[in-house]
Each structure stands twice: as C-alpha cells, then as structure tokens.
Amino acid sequence: MLAVVYYVAASVDGYIASPDGGIDWLSAVEVPGEDYGYAEFYRSVDALLLGRHTYEQILSLSEWPYPDKPCWVLSSKPLPTSQAGITVTADTPDEVLTELKARGLQRIWLVGGGLLAGAFRAEGLITEYIISIIPIVLGTGIPLFGGVGPEERLKLIESTAYSSGLVQQRYLRASELPC
Fold first, then answer.
1. Is the whole-model pTM more than 0.90?
2. For residues 129-135, average pLDDT
3. What gap in Å lies between CA 164 and CA 8, rounded to an integer?
4. Which of residues 84 and 120 earns the better pLDDT score?
C-alpha cells in the first residue's frame, strides 16, 4: 500500500511560511543536536513530492537537500532541474501516485507547500500527517492547506512535546486504521 505523509512544520495559527514564503521563524526552535526525529523520518521515505513554490524556494539554498531520494515536482509550468532524480510533471496528484506505485515506491513525503497539500487532501490521498507545531503566531502567511476539501477525521497516534516548545503530532486518517 502506498502511504503519503504530510510531514510539515506550522505556526500555532496554522501557517507553514510567511506571506513571501520565508521560514526564518523556524529558527526559534533550533537546538544543537536536536532534529525532532527528522533523520529517522527521512530514512523512512522512498520519494518526495513538492509543489512549484516549495521547489523554487529549495533551489535558493546552497545545495539540494535531497540528493539520495527521487523527487516529483508538481507544476503546470516547466521548471529547471539541476539534479538527477527530479521529475517535473503537470500530472494530477492521483496520476503521480499511480506512477510512484508502479515504480514500487511505498512511503512518500509530501514536502509541501500548502496548495499541493490541499490538492492531495481534497482527493483523500494523504494517509498520515506529522505536524510540528512551532510556538509562534505568525498572523498571516501560507496556510497549512490551500484550497478547500471535505471534512476528514483523524486519529492522534503520537504527540511529543520538546523543551524548545515544539510539539510534534502524528495523525492517521481514521479510514486508514485497522478495524
């Protein structure tokens, strides 16, 4: 079974970035030697999904942070690819997941952004949510989910509070739980 995990950091008021896409506010919880389970999570995924804006934001970094994982960038416009293993596609979320499943990939990280997460959520394609709540109220910005979608029942599986104030919550879709 293919699992799509939305692993993301958000402000207390539900934003994943400032209005201009900035994430400098995440530094408020940076603690030397603490990765909040990121390395373990990253090892658990087979591939990554990114939206155009997230991809362009990551390209501005000094180096590509995912050199060992295949990445699909969902965009209706052509984009440059500077690394091997990056596929830019205008396919729908369902079509992309069909391709990933055909390639034998099993656990996919939906990196973001909010519009892409909203599109996947609207189609019921996210199976797991891992949301790290950062103790800050941004007041405005890019929401955790863009667009609209149906109500979705979740089951809290795990919640971890860290001394930095970050609280990481892991949810599964209620429909994904064993009966």
1. yes
2. 98
3. 17
4. 120
